[in-house]
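Fold sample X.
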Amino acid sequence: MTASNQPTASLQPSRIDALVIGAGFGGMYAVHKLSGMGLTVQGIEAGGDVGGVWYWNRYPGARCDLMSLDYCYSFSPEIEQDWTWSEQFAAQPEILAYANFVADRLGLRRRFLFETRVTGATYDDATRIWRVTTDDGRIFEATYCVMASGPLSIPKGVPFDGAEVFKGEILLAAKWPHEPVSFAGKRVGLVGTGSTGVQIVPEVAKTADALTVFQRTPSFSLPMRNVALEPDYVAEIKRNYASIRQAARNSPLGGVRPQSTRPFFSVTPDQRRALMEDSWARGGLSFLGTFSDLLTNPEANEQVAEFVRDKISEVVVDPHTAEKLKPRGYPIFARRPCLDTQYYETFNLPHVTLHDCLESPIIKITEAGLLTSVGEVELDVLIFATGYDGLTGALLNFDVRGRGGLQLRDKWHDGAGSHLGLMMASFPNLFLVCGPNGPAALANIITLDQQNVDWIADAIARMRQDGLATMEPTGRAEQGWMDAVYGLAEQTLVSKANTWYVGGNISGKPRGLSMYTGGFQRYSEACRLAAESGYVDFVFEKAAVESAPGSLAVVGG
């Protein structure tokens, strides 16, 4: 079935084993894995095809900041050998082509409904199934519900009043048009200088008549220094994928980005400087891994931050602009680190202007452009790269109700909580892929997706083997995991910046670093032990054929 060939909606419920929400890399793998176990599986995706965030993110300069050899599946040696990356850091078209390649190879599209949004998911205590509704009237009744909607799938909208009166064109980076957009001869305004804005600026500046970058909080950005992958090197990768994957799984990052065990102050100032210069010259995120304690030692962090600020001054000619571009007031790498290609150099161009929104905030959108506290900036095109409602946004975007009608938004009123980032008390058989209380954005997301899905598949296999209908973590286990998550968060500088990591970009959202910061390897080990212990931290219901409905059993030990 092609993406455009959708079944006709029906008001009759469809009974299935598992429903998977999302057709990004986590959802694609979940559909493949669970259907391979003999389950009847239905995938649902709001977009028109597979690819998740890469289906939507088509803005100029869109590129992954993880190395391509990390940002791909490892479960299929055949796919590893048959797909060849062209660059060290892949661009959006190539990543989307990879997703399509995998979907074609595994025949995944026939198991998905595209251009379909879930409107509600309600657990029925009596029948012990999830009843899921969609925006076109479909109803699914599923034993297992897998949320694979990703940590970054609900973009923020236009954050200012007046969009309806603007005479020009408004573009959202996270929902970019599928057709080409021309900036030739146009005055363009870009709002937002996170990882997306940093990628857009150099590309738009190539053709725009004028570009004004509206910056509130500057980001620390590192040079990507992307390179094409030579055939001999690609052949080496393919011969050694097995050992590369093993190293990634045993890494705190879930990938093979360079990292060090060297504390910052364990070497002399001259040696530190030489190490930083070398990492800067090599590019990519290797700079982040130069020292082991950058996210735990504030003094070390500030010295590294000052090194990067000096680099900005070396590149940007105008001292006033350079100073405005220098991040201050938060630790380096506490916000998502950006990788760029000629970002700072772009501000040396005569038609590119930096507008400091802290000095002169944006008030509203007007017919002609943006009104700030110091006047109006006339524009033909407005681009908003203002981020996402991260981690929890997609899970709270529709009505989810567990036992006794408990709403997920009520359970998470004071912040997201779960056990292992995989399951929640009072929400039986509801599984999270890349959930808000796992490593999420702090690890290689595809490695994490695969690990999560494998754990979920093993848990479902255990239930089916032992005649068990449902599983959920105990409240005590969930609280214990969250205590560990928040305890680790207090030890890292990641929690010290007002970012989407802590909910700081969404008004009214509970604040706090709910991601697991202990590293992928330790997280994966915790998940493994939870299963190998016999799932002692979980409560199971026996299937009706073995006992009366509602019979609870603690399985394990």
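Fold sample Y, listed below.
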Amino acid sequence: MIPHLPAAAGLVLLAASAATGQETQPLPLTAAGNRAGENAVRQAGDAFGTVIGQEEVGLYSDSDVRGFSPRVAGNVRIAGLYFDPVFFPSDRISGSTVIRVGPTVLGSPFPSPTGVVDLGLRVPGDTAAASVLANVDTWGSRIIEADVALPVTGGLSLGLGGQIAHEHMGDGTRDYYYEGAAIARWRPAPGIEIVPFISLTYTPFHEAATIIVPAGETLPPPFPRNFWTGPAWQRTRETELNAGMVADADLGSGWGFKAGLFRSSIKYFEDYTNLLVDVQPDGSARAQVIVDPPLLFGSTSGEARLTKRWQVGARIHQLHFAFRGRDAQRRFGGAPVVDLGPTRLDRRITTPQPQVAFGAQERDRFRQWTLAAGYEGKWDGVGELSIGVQRTDYDKRIGLPGAVPIVTRTQPLLFNANVAVVISGTLAAYGGYVTGLEESGVAPEQAANRNAAQPAIRTRQFDAGLRWNPVGDMRLVAGLFEVAKPYFNLDAGNRFRELGEVRQRGIEASLSGPVTRNLTVVGGTVQLRPRVTANLPGVGRAPVGTIRETYSASADWRPPWAAGLSFDASLFHTSSQVATVSNQVAIPARTFVDIGGRYRFNLAGKAAMLRVQIENIGDVQGFELFGAGAYLPVWGRSALAYVTVDL
């Protein structure tokens, strides 16, 4: 059956060792009626990346794992099943996100290079419950969330949720959106469970962040804090949809069936891209805006998996037979670039809205079907083995209406092999080799071929390491890895295309768990040694975006003399980041420190929690990388507070 955890299925904590043969243990996560207990530090299984509700902890995210983006690569799962998101489901549907790398991919059939992003569903329980959350911050944001769980019959529970968000960003932009969602759990017969869900978000008001593109190989000059340059008429409207269903059935005699079908789409009624180009050291620039006609991006995806499980003594065997697929469409292009004239970084653009003529829009269609077979074996006290083979059929068609499309098709054979071996009662070694077929993304906003889809790419990954439980529930993972892929970025003509091959070698480590009864820590590091192989002039040895050293540390302390009170702190340090294809420009090293606290109390007899946090307490400012030679401002220090009440 689907392991429905109170906040999310799919966030799991491996037992004493990835290879001890013990069953995976779920973390005590939260759902409607128990959200006051959300705490990412205490609920994270490692330091590789965990999101619980409002909070995020760890080294990696859905856009950056081992120097690459698993989201772009197509390595996203819902409850362990293949999902191709146009955008991620919100907290109303998915209460958690877990990054799976190294030993944590064991138990997940058919893993992919670049790691796996596993989304957990916020499934309603069997008792009536509700949670309300109200959030404010010093930028001026105001957000209200509500989730309700309603038992309908003995086998049917319904979850309803909604959100009203008026977000104000540290770069001066605003984003107002409204969401409604529903999720259910239906058990029509013993051993059968079906979880359908739908989430619809309408954004009537969104101001596009200012993308800063300096003239030449240099960083931009300082940008004003909490300031937006864009004209008042530059407001995007859009509608976002995520819907789907997960089904799980025990067929008897050791056979089980699990399947998911998902739809993700976004429709832009109006869309703008706000650019400041040719930015000079004195802050002068030219303002440009890209005005898009209505756009549509959508994808239908899913997976069906049949599993046979049997046990012989201390050995557990599983055979998996799976079918995965996706059918994605994009309607894009036809957008003119409008020059709004000279301006400055500290000047608001007041140019009247121009009349524009749209060009013809391109249509992309991606179809990918995969047949897979795999074996998983666990031998208690000895180790684990996971092997799999996949045959995938990939077809991409791109073109203007009425024109002969450009067709890309490939049918590779992919495989994976992962193993863990118990060395002692607290120590295990792991290793794996995985090949994959992944998306290489689309051309970024500042590219001459903006939004153009790139071909699918063959990838490969090797990793190995140790997992150790030194004492109690403390867990240490340390390993090395190598990931190799074709390298896509901007060429000398500002077109986004394949430039060569990139190889990321590195070391990663995670230490997590309770140090004492009152103190829990999550910390880790990743050290990258990248290399680009290219025969083109002006291409550096490291890929754009490379950060060679990253450190993350978080702690949560509950003072024994103050019931319900806890304090937390986190540190995130990065070395300099490669910012241009030539490697001549880098964003300097930075350290971000957050501090905060929680107070758990009763409000009219109901569990409640007050959360207060100061982010970036050192008020670090500057720029973050948007793409090769393009930047967004770092917002600086801010504070937030929210109250959660469980009803």
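Sample Y note: Helices lie at 40-43, 70-73.
Also: The mean pLDDT is 89.
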